[in-house]
Amino acid sequence: MTAGVVGINAGSPLAVEENGVSGSFRPVLSVRFFPIPFFRIRFFPVLSPLAVEENWVSGSFPFPMAVEENWVSGSFHTVAIQTGADPSKASIKFYWGEADDGTPAAFVPDRNDERHWFGNGVRVGNRLLLFLNRVRNSDGGLGFESAGWTAWMVDNPDSEPSAWQMRELKTPENSLGVLVGFAAVLQLGGHVYAFGSEDPVKSHPIYAARWTAEQVVSGRLLAPEWWAGHRLGWVADASRAPRWPLFENGQSELSIHWEQATQRFLGVNTQGFGAADVVIRAAPALTGPWSAPRMLYRPTEYYRPNAMIYAAKAHQQLAGGDLLLTYASNSFRFSEMISDHSIYFPRFVRLMRCP
Predict the structure, then answer these.
(1) 329: CB partners within 8 A, 6+ apart
(2) Per-residue pLDDT tens digits for 114-125
(3) Pairwise CA distance, residues 208 & 188, whole Å
(4) To bridge 131 with a disulfide, which of 36, 111, 119, 275 should be the other Cys (CB 3.0-4.6 Å)?
């Protein structure tokens, strides 16, 4: 059922100095052994019945947020509500904004030269908090770059998205360029935890910020706490203590959830750029120590020319297997992305636990 895995424990910079490496900010490493579950992979008979049914053309997919019996996903310009937990039987409905002249527009309005790209969200009480990446065009890379993060509050999440009452919240800047809440969001006990990678660091270290549930419901996000390593714990946003990543080699989009069967937190993300694998890691506590990633699944698109595989996430909320994951596939060639209808929509993968 499980296997021993070497874990890496990143200590705080103070711990490094106390170990006689003053001036170095490399982490202190320790070896830990704890279980990661093994799964059998079963691909859904239809790659994405939801995508096929609705002619879905987008790779930015799902961040689950329970709204009664439904869950919400978002792409660059649209929001979708999935009804039903089993993707092979569920239905989905899309919503988008409307310009003054009645033409379709982004669900969250553009602001000057910035567009708002959905990250993750969380339902807390009678509020729905959405985290977004502020994106603008660029001449290099994939043609866009991040300008920071923002958050929007939905005051009536049980209504249809076309009737949502939304407001943008004030959010603090951070010197690391962490896209707060874009990687993953999790509510545990009395806190909401928002995870984000340091942009544009290629190793994608994953940092964590948190607020009390009361702060979130009231829309007060200006004073989060940040994880600063096991020696310092959680520190105020105003603290000068260095923030410390939970783990390295994450991704800008991933998932973190608690698995009851193994009593471990599991993290799922893609590893690599372009042709990428889906990997899994585990930790006994949210703040670690986290194990090294282990390969979970190699997508069939891995062997396609110009393959781009990204945004792998696990979804506890979905049914049809012991654990379901999704990932997005695309092409580095824009012409293929437009003309090839077998790519650029989310894939669903069913994971069955090994006995």
Answers:
(1) 59, 299, 301, 307, 308, 309, 343, 344, 345, 347
(2) 988 889 999 999
(3) 13
(4) 119
